[in-house]
Structures
1.
Amino acid sequence: MTKRLCLSPAEIEQKLNDAGVQPTLQRIAIFRHILCEADHPTADQVREWAEKNLDKISQATVYNTLGTLVEAGLLQALRLPHSDKVIYDHNIEDHHHFLDEKSGRLYDLPEEDVEVTYKLPKKFRAHRVDVVVKGRVE
Amino acid sequence: MTKRLCLSPAEIEQKLNDAGVQPTLQRIAIFRHILCEADHPTADQVREWAEKNLDKISQATVYNTLGTLVEAGLLQALRLPHSDKVIYDHNIEDHHHFLDEKSGRLYDLPEEDVEVTYKLPKKFRAHRVDVVVKGRVE
DNA sequence: TTCTAGAGTTAGAATAATTCTAAACGTAGA
DNA sequence: TCTACGTTTAGAATTATTCTAACTCTAGAA
Ligand SMILES: [Mn+2]
Ligand SMILES: [Mn+2]
Ligand SMILES: [Zn+2]
Ligand SMILES: [Zn+2]
């Protein structure tokens, strides 16, 4: 369901370079973690993983890195109704989400599986629509 | 566009009683403010108004009151992608929103003006869909 | 190679939103 | 009138995130 781009550190480094982001060790590791292993993690979940798996890293670096990756268009930052934490999404295509209200887990819904039609007042110009379907996974 | 239920304090008191919420002065005033005057306010905007317009009120009471009104089903709490603040909505019917990304202002979109169709994986059971249309008001 | 300016990282403090604590207060009903 | 319980309060605590200012690294320039 989720597109997972599992790349080697060298390929990650290339992607960072292409995006104009200096590929530091911390950025390579965090970006690869989110691309390959993590599922819609929060900053704090990334920090937990990083503290276990990298030599030493500060909270500020985790936030800085996530912010840098989002600014560079390599990650999306999401805010969902059930939580006050920002969620980082390696899926940067326009897409929608299903929220399992029991577990709090988020699932991607491909753009083409969701159709939205709407009528807006005159003078309202839309340039994006976000859909969150809430429910349960049985 | 937004349904505005402008009621007298006595009518507000009745609504609170009906919902099983003791109609204290603070609750009546805040609930009436959100029903009649405020447009998708944050807790802090409610606090600002309350400090100006009520004899004395604490921040905790504002949060307590908003929480109580949401629990009683008299307000909706919203979390939107552009802000980390909870937004309180007197419109408790299912409805959608338009976010003016320039001003940050939220507009209600009636349920019937938005149509969503989606295809979910087996075992996914939806019980609500939230749509946020983002764009500009010219 | 060495130098160096700018970019990145860091610990810790600061800020912002919200919640908690424990005492004081008010009020509905016995 | 009394009292139990719900409500309000000031202030502290918590949580998520950002800022500060010093230290460190690294990409080029020389
Ligand atoms: Mn509204
Ligand atoms: Mn916060
Ligand atoms: Zn996603
Ligand atoms: Zn609304």
2.
Amino acid sequence: MELKRSFIKDLLISEETDKQVNAKGWVRTKRGNKQVAFVALNDGSTINNIQVVIDIANFDENQVKDITTGASISVNGTLVKSMGQGQNVEIQAKEILVYGTANPETYPLQKKGHTLEFLREIAHLRFRTNTFGAVFRIRHAMAFAIHKFFNDKNFYYLHTPIVTGSDAEGAGEMFRVSTLDPENPPKTEDGKIDYAEDFFGKETNLTVSGQLEAELGAMALSNVYTFGPTFRAENSNTPRHLAEFWMIEPEMAFYDINDNMDLAEEMLKYLVKYALDNCIDDLSFLEKRLLEDEKSKPQNERSEMPLIEKLQFIVDSDFVRLSYTEAIDVLKNSKPAKKGKFQFPVEWGIDLQSEHERYLVEKHYKKPVILSDYPRDIKAFYMKQNDDGKTVRAMDVLFPGIGEIIGGSQREEIYDKLSSRINEMGIPEKDMWWYLETRKFGTVPHSGFGLGFERLILFITGMSNIRDVIPFPRTPKNAEF
RNA sequence: UCCUCAGUAGCUCAGUUGGUUAGAGCACCUGACUGUUAAUCAGGGGGUCGUAGGUUCAAGUCCUACCUGGGGAGCCA
């Protein structure tokens, strides 16, 4: 009789021993001697392996030889209490089917640790390691939690376009989308490429943000959010940037900047708590990994607290809120400013540098910080202007170790003010007619923000390079897999 | 894009002021071991020293350019 396949996650907590079970998965290691072999089997359902015990006398010798690290097998056997230490239950194997072998001489994964840089070169196999298994299970849990959070609050998931003709936002360099022959594109009379001949009849690009379209949705559905891929063709080579990344962008009608900050703080705490409540095995593993990793670092480069404690701290603490202007005062009176330790001098009107943000979050407040009301001249055209004529209702959430995890604002809902700002910044108004019309017909105060999904995952997993929290990273000079 | 460090066996690394046949640990293969937990013990195979030039009697080692990766910065999420 065919046994129904059980997930290892469920077998490991099962009380029903002496029962016939089937498990399928990939071999992590095999140990043993001539009489008995111990196979650690993993199927991705949990970070933990189940031990399969093989009495070699009962099996074909060649078959046992094929069961090596990386091989895929199906095991029928008895779930029994383990005689050895280190696990509660194990499977006493009766029948084993080898689906696919993995030549030990060429299979690149070993039981001993690999560097993350090496594993990135074999991204097709790195899912099979403990670290990446944990990271991608957590990534899934966070995606699910985001939908749950918004659904429970009456937000609608809005699908904004990936291919966009709007190039007005200025969020970054864009990837062109075109079906024209790159060798011999059609030209206009003055010798320029004639995009009227292109697939969409105009220049199109991959989206840099779904915000403007999300605003349109919020002007009828009240609360919407987007959660999709976003593309930036910036030549950024850092552990915090990707050319293709996922972004969550809620947009809320009738929200002012304070409502916006409340929502951002509530959402981040909800997500961190969800991870603590649902991914504790994976988080514990990542915490140990991180501690091990940091042993080789000097004291001042190590984390202030272990991963799980850090996450709990986020859930328990109130985020510090202060205005840009107040932040500048704090920075000016800080020790590093007085001792001339900042590389970039602090002056009202500058865009804060990472060293300034890090000082505020990691040294001064030692908590997440929400900065608001930035100078108008360093922020985007759509942000609501304050009455002082100098600042706009922007807000950034800064996290320790990550920097800016959320950027958002109250939007300018007054037609004349928005229109004149668009003109001041030299954006062609004719391209923005649809955006401006929402301010003509039933405009309302509204707000929204963008959360970089991978930066959230970085924070929650404690990983340090953003290329290790997305399955197949897209970065300058790299689109392998 | 800028600054900086690195690239030596499948992996992680050592390799002295330039000097004989380039080393180690792990992995892998063979053998030993009746319950292992990164199993253990003995033996074995495995290298165009990132690529291309150059200096020198002699280059893994020095010089130049390029490629790739790490860390930092800018742009940002």
